[in-house]
Amino acid sequence: MTVLFRYPHEKICRRLTAGDDRLLTFPDILSLKGHGGFVIAPFAPSAERPVVLVENAEEMSYAQPDIPLLPADDADLSDGRQEADNRRVYGEDFRLFHRQLTGGRFRKIVLARSMTVRLPETPDKETLFHTACALYPAQFITLFDTPYTGTWLVATPETLLEGSGTRWQTMALAGTRSHQTEENPDWSGKDRTEQACVAEYIRDTVGRFSDHVQEAAPVTVTAGGMDHLCSRFTFTLDRPGTDAVSLLDALHPTPAVAGLPKEAARRFILDNEHTDRLYYSGFTGMWRPDAETRLFVSLRCMRTDGHQATLYAGGGLVKDSEEEKEWRETCLKRGSMIQVLRQCTARKTT
Fold it and tell me: pTM (2 decimals)?
């Protein structure tokens, strides 16, 4: 078992050490109650695809290595024939998903896809992790490898839930574009609608658990060469009979990775999306409600298996979404993991 992680804007990496006997698995989020540790949750927890908890692990901290970023080959890593197939399948999924929006079944729904690339050799886990840390200082970086999940690298900008005791925070992050250098450029109506759906859901959900919620106005945040719209929420967990694990279960999956209405959108995705998301668009991080919890949505993901890597990306669809623009957004997002692979290849050849 391997778990490495680094929090956003920090220079300290952490390594968890524990035998496989310290791994607990649960069929749902609510079963986390009474437990603490590093949690790895899938998009849709079940007995077959469980929530994994690394409990009572030894944690070691160390300074993030200073890895210089090298000039990297910008050649496309995808196979042309496979990418053409991916584009065709994505189009089929988009049209099916978009019909549900125009027909009024959903207000928003997220469509994901994956791309598998062949690698010249099995990548070194620590090299992948430290390269991602160097590339993306503002993001939560983790690499985990367990018998239940396989090996995943995550470099995500999105907090799902953080805090302890009664004081908590979360965010509504949605809308994506290439980073804009000009100050305060306008966001499209589509992006604002998409972000507003997520914010509304979080506002309503948190409001069932707290009488004291503060919501900041949306601002532009930048991560990995991409801009997003983000609203931050701070609140106290003060409603009688409420607890952090129930809040976590209510939040996941937010409309940032599923849709509205929540359960109907998740079911539609599971039944119709060609991509098996596995642990992509789940969440991961430290779950310690009585000490410090810091959980992040598992975005910008890559799953490695021997000489191949599968990269995951998705985007939120609303009525105004256009297929080609949404396709290009997934290409932009998968670039986060492509850059990691390119850097690792460049380092090998120097």
Answer: 0.95
